Amino acid sequence: MGRPGRNAFNQIAGRMKNDGEVDFVIANGENAASGRGPSPEITQALLGAGADAVTLGDHCWDSREMVAGIDMESAVVRPANLPKGAPGRGYVRVDTPEGTVTVVQLIGRVFMQPNYECPFQQIERMLKGELANDKVIFVDMHGEASSERMAMGRFLDGRVSAVFGTHTHCQTSDETVFTKGTAYITDLGMTGPKDSVLGREVEPVIRKFLTGVPQKFDVAKGDPTLEGAIVDVDMKTGHARSIERVRIRLED
Ligand SMILES: [Fe+2]
Q1: Which of 102, 167, 207, 240 is least buried, going by the fewest C-beta atoms within 10 A?
Q2: Is residue 250, in this structure, part of any structural domain at all?
Q3: Is residue 219 part of a domain?
Q4: pLDDT 10s digits, 152-191
C-alpha cells in the first residue's frame, strides 16, 4: 500500500529473501502506487527488491503505462478471468533452483465488477489445460467476499499448493492446510501503514462517512508493517506442509 508499503516490503521481505528465510516471494502490487494500481516501474522495483512475481487485481489498469506495457512484463500477473481481450497474462511460471513455481491470479465476482468471467470455471479450465503438468501452483484469489475466497480454497484443495486471498487489507486468522494438501488463508492482510483505515489517512475516511461528501484519501504514513504468509511446499508433490501467518512491523 503506497510508499510505506513499498518501504516495508523492500526492507522486510528483501531481508527475508537475502537471508534465505524464504526462497520465493509473491507480492500483491495492487495498491503499490499511492494506493492505486502500479506502473511497470513500480512492479519492477518490487521485483528488484525481492519479489519473484507480482500480482495485480481490480486496480490493474489504473496506470496507463501498465495497460500499454503489461505484455512485456514477464513476472506480472493480472486476474486470469478478466473479460476476454484484456492485455497481460493470468499466470506466470518462474524457474527457481528448487523447481518451477506457477503463480495464478483470479478475481472474485461477489461485490466486484460484474463483467469478470467465473473464476471457478476459469481455474478449472486452466488446471485441465495449460496448467495440467504444473506441480507447484500458488493462486491469489483477489476478492471482497470471504465466502467466495474460502469456497475457492476448498474447490482447489489437493490441486494447487496454496490459495491466498487479497484485496480487503484485513488479515484473517484462518490459515490452515486443508486435508488434501492445499495451504489456505482468506486474506493475507496489508503491507502498508497500519495507523490508517485500510491504508488511508483516518480523518478523511471518517468525514466521508459522516457527511457523504467526497474526500481526498491520501495514503497514511504511520506504523508501516508487512503482512502475509509463509508457505512450506514439498516441491516434488506440490503439496503444502505448513502455512504461517506473518505480521512484522518496520522498526523506525
Ligand atoms: Fe483490489
Answers
A1: 207
A2: no
A3: no
A4: 999 999 999 999 999 999 999 999 999 999 999 999 999 9
Mean pLDDT taken over the chain: 97
Q: Which residues are catalytic?
A: 59
Give the structural domain span for 237. 2-191+226-242
| pLDDT band (50, 70, 90) for residue 252 | low
Which pTM value belongs to this model?
0.97
8 A C-beta contact, residue 66 and residue 60: yes
**What CATH number has the domain bearing residue 16?**
3.60.21.10
Distance CA 129, CA 250 (A): 42
> Three-class SS of residue 162?
strand
Distance 29 CA to ligand 1 centre (A): 10
Domain tally for the chain? 1
Longest CA pairwise span in the chain (Å): 56
30 Cα–ligand 1 center, Å? 6
CA 60 / ligand 1 centre spacing (Å)? 9
